[in-house]
Amino acid sequence: MGMTIVAVVGGLRLLDIPTLAAVVSLMTIVNTTFSLRGQLQHVHRRLLFWIGLGQLPGIFIGLWLLGYLDAEDSRTLELCLGIFITVGGLAMTIRPRAMKKVSGGFFAWVSGLLGGLLGGMFSASGPVLGWFGYSQPLAVNVIRATLLSSFFMTTSTRTLVVGVQGGLTETVLTYAALGVPAVLLGAWLGKAFPPLVSEDVLKRGAFFILLLMGVWICFSALQPLPTS
């Protein structure tokens, strides 16, 4: 969800990236809270601990980079967004090969660090953490619950930090309030009326669109600025 919203809204330049990321964080908190109901018993607590331990410094680094680039070089920030969406779209179309055993703490920490970095910058850590999660030799419900919990940790921590910094502006809260009903409706419809196509087909289609959006954002960011 986070990548899709960031790709579409960011690609159309409807909101600046810091505001967009703050809105997506709030919407993701609602979505993960709704989706985790009745699923917490499936969370792989050891993996979640190490992922969370990596996420914390990653979020702060990502937020610092976002603030710095937004103030100093917005075109580079836009290019980073395009590269992130393009690479993320490519990565999520390829099913990772399952490992023979569950990853150790260091690998989970590194994945959490990278996921936190992307979560801090764009509020969308799905490509990294999704790849890590689905490479684990675990039941799908365990992977899903663990990933949802990690997304909740990233976005709630990010939102807390942004709020302390004064970034939860009226604009952010307004757009989040407008988007939350759609998120809840979509989550309910996804459970009540599963799509007619297979999950693999649905994912590949969605991330093919993300790939195109990412290339478009990169192309736009690399265009020369108009001269006065």
Quick recap of the structure?
The chain has 228 residues and is mainly alpha-helical. It is built from 9 helices and no strands.
Could you explain how this protein is built, in words?
The chain is mainly alpha-helical. It has one domain (2-221). The chain is 76% helix and 0% strand. Helix 2 (17-35) crosses helix 7. The radius of gyration is 17 Å and the shape is globular.
Could you give the topology of this structure?
Layout: H1 2-11, H2 17-35, H3 45-72, H4 74-92, H5 105-122, H6 126-133, H7 140-164, H8 170-192, H9 199-222
Helix pairs in contact: 1-2, 1-4, 1-9, 2-7, 2-8, 3-4, 3-5, 3-7, 4-6, 4-9, 5-6, 5-7, 6-7
**Count of helix runs:** 9
β-strand percent reads under 5%
H/E element order: HHHHHHHHH
Shape: globular
Supply database-style keywords:
single chain; 228 residues; mainly alpha; 9 helices; 76% helix
